[in-house]
Hints:
By secondary structure, the chain is of the alpha+beta class. Helices cover 46% and strands 16% of the residues. It has helices spanning 35-47, 82-99, 142-153, 163-177, 181-207, 216-235, 237-244, and strands at residues 2-3, 8-10, 20-23, 26-30, 56-60, 63-67, 110-112, 121-124, 127-131, 138-140. A hairpin with a 2-residue loop joins β3 and β4. The longest helix has 27 residues, at 181-207.
Amino acid sequence: MTDASGGAVALTGGRMASEVFRRDDTVLRAASDSSEFMASLLKIFEQQNFLGAPKYLGQVDGKDILSYIDGEVPTKFQPWSDDQVRAAVRLLREMHDATRGSDLAGRFDVVCHHDPGPNNAVFQDGIPAAFIDFEQAAPGGRLEDVAYFAWTWTISSKQVMPLEDQAAQVRLIANVYGLGEAERRALVDCVLERQSRNVRFWAEFLASPETAPAAPEVLADRIAWSKREHHFVYAHREVFDRALT
């Protein structure tokens, strides 16, 4: 689809972003209350030579301007190979390290992406090379992102990837990221907490449809999905805990 006002092509990907267009080598997206924080975060990445995120180029006509990262953004969650997960979790760790001790992180451990799922990753030659859509980024504990990452990249109640293989890949995530013993013991609880929070997050939009980023039936589906996944992890938490210890 083309933006009639400027000849830019609409981009898809992510679940929260709207009005996102590509024009040549730039991305234009509607400015929001988070634009200032996002701009500062992307500037930190640039200063720290973290290449796995777009650059912030400024703002014009109520739109943020970002550099365009060439590649493919998945539209669906699915099983990923160990090599793909390994590359993505390395990106996550590098992204966190770039913000550690910064003014943006403040009293928190790092600045979290808060939605580092495969739907916000750019793949190049089949390998994750960058994260996009930093609108939800905010200071937080790194386990918040690692837990959401483990859920959306690896854990699935559909079990297209068998349960034991999912658990082994969660262990891979913990190993590659470099989680300590205490963090590994807490990771499953953090996954469960994030799944519960996901239910609340989408339920609040369902209660106020005028501000919702999606139709009520889509919101209801995301709530039901989060509940199913929470039930699955809770029912099999011993398998995941055992893999992490």
